[in-house]
Specification:
Shape: globular
Distance between the termini: 24 Å
Structural class: alpha+beta
Number of helices: 5
Radius of gyration: 18 Å
Number of domains: 1
Oligomer: single chain
Strand order of the largest sheet: 5-3-15-14-13-12
Helix content: 10-25%
CATH architecture: 4-Layer Sandwich
CATH class: Alpha Beta
CATH topology: L-amino peptidase D-ALA esterase/amidase
């Protein structure tokens, strides 16, 4: 595995900023990945209950090859309104796909379910448009993890979920990063242990350093009866500085989904809407098939680490206990 970048965040990829905004009373929020310039993008959806906007436009056979932002949001289908807020922000700055004298910002969006976490969702007006504008206003190279942005209201099985990020830099200078709002149906921690499923990929104690004493032999997850379809979801973005086509990026997004499978068990369930976007800022050089495989491998590792980091950094909220409150300071790398 390659070492992380200077901040161990997706913004270690040149040409990216990220903003978060939260409605603490409603226990929901929005995360916006904001390229400095239009970025090539693709997407892959693997969950059984996705909620997305403008993902069809990212098909390699379609006209549009670049996006102006990608939005991850809480709020289930209500949260799709967040893309409109990002579009408003971008439009005010003259950014978007040129159609004659008009520019139309391209802002794909994916949402997670956080409607039953105890927050006040009796909205007179949906908050997501304003949250997205605030996230764009605050976009920066450094940002906090855990109860932030789209991760504020997230849960991870019986633990508090959260916003996570990680990065990796190859010896040749390829930059890869991931950000994720971890809200999976399945657990991220091994049964009978304080170790994350993603523990073999951990870098520099970034999610506590816990290691399993043994491999679990007993059944590790009991599917509850009557689980509401679509009540979870892990949504994320992986990015690279390489110059890639939309078709190449779609392969990166497909490979990156393996990171969810390494960090969550079960992954891509009927109750999840697992969606991964892939971005290329193009500040690096064009890459061939072998480098493309390397980028996909790095993206999967970063996504798995980001999921574990998002849960590790989260704080207890309502009835969702944090990882650190349950497993104690010894699991916090202290």
């Amino acid at each position: 595995m390659y070492p992380p970048g200077p901040h161990n965040l997706i913004t270690d990829v040149d040409g990216l900023s990220l903003g978060n905004a939260q409605d603490v009373a409603a226990r929901t929020g929005v995360t916006v990945v904001l390229p400095d310039n239009p970025a090539t993008a693709a997407v892959d959806v693997r969950g059984g209950a996705p909620g997305t906007r403008d993902t069809d436009a990212l098909d390699p056979t379609c006209l549009v090859e670049h996006v102006d932002a990608i939005v991850l949001s809480g709020g289930s289908a209500f949260g799709l309104e967040s893309a409109s807020g990002a579009m408003t922000w971008l439009n005010a700055r003259g950014r978007g796909f040129a159609v004659g004298e008009t520019r139309v910002p391209i802002v794909p969006c994916a949402i997670l379910f956080d409607l039953l976490n105890g927050g006040d969702k009796e909205w007179a007006t949906l908050p997501y448009r304003e949250l997205a504008v605030a996230a764009c206003d605050g976009a920066a190279k450094q940002f906090a993890l855990g109860n932030m942005g789209a991760g504020l209201g997230a849960t991870a099985a019986d633990l508090k979920g959260g916003l996570g990020s990680a990065s990796s830099i190859s010896p040749s200078g390829i930059q890869v990063g991931a950000v994720v709002a971890a809200n999976p149906f399945g657990p991220v921690v091994m049964p009978g242990s304080d170790a994350f499923w993603a523990w073999p990929l951990e870098q520099n104690g970034e999610f506590g350093g816990a290691r399993p004493e043994r491999s679990p032999m007993e059944p590790d997850f009991e599917f509850p009866e009557g689980s509401p379809v679509g009540a979870n979801t892990t949504v994320g973005v992986v990015a690279t500085n390489a110059s890639l086509t939309v078709a190449q990026l779609q392969r990166v997004a497909i490979m990156a989904h393996d990171g969810i499978a390494r960090a969550v068990r079960p992954a891509h369930s009927p109750f999840d809407g697992d969606t991964v976007f892939a971005l290329a800022t193009g500040t690096g050089s064009p890459e061939g098939p072998s480098q493309l495989g390397e980028i996909g491998m790095m993206a999967a590792d970063c996504l798995a680490r980001a999921i574990a980091r998002g849960v590790y950094e989260a704080e207890t909220l309502g009835n969702s206990p944090s990882y650190r409150s349950r497993h104690g300071p010894s699991a916090a790398g202290g």
